[in-house]
Amino acid sequence: MTQNPTAKADKIEQPENHYQSPTEVAKDVTLTNEEKKRALNTWEQDARQLLVASDEGMPTPKGQDHRIGEVQRAKEEIGEAKQALPLNEVSNAKVRRQHSK
Questions:
Q1: Which residues have CB under 8 Å from 100's CB, separation 6+?
Q2: Nearby residues of 39 by Cβ (< 8 Å), 6 or more positions away
Q3: Residue 15 is part of which domain span?
Q4: Which single residue of 12, 19, 48, 79 has CA 20 to 30 Å from 85?
Q5: Quick one: pLDDT band at residue 58, thresholds 50, 70, 90?
Q6: Burial category of 93 from C-beta neighbours within 10 Å (exposed 0-12, middle 13-18, buried 19 and up)
Q7: What's the pTM value of the predicted model, to 2 decimals?
């Protein structure tokens, strides 16, 4: 049985809505390693944005922890070297959000 391409894309673009933890992404047999990497990168970028917001005094939404350590361990499970996203990617995303308001 093949998976709906739209549902698969949504898993990659919004992994927090489909998985209880980053480890579940690593164990999902319906995703290729490249898709898992993209999903985990998305999760990491979202986590870093939460950290930046928290550092600027914004409250963290209830039930949303950054989970960066979990993301890193899940990446290691799929054979990805421990590598953080550059902070400027988080800052650039923040600037885009501010300009879109």
A1: none
A2: 11, 12, 15, 25, 31
A3: 5-99
A4: 19
A5: confident
A6: middle
A7: 0.70
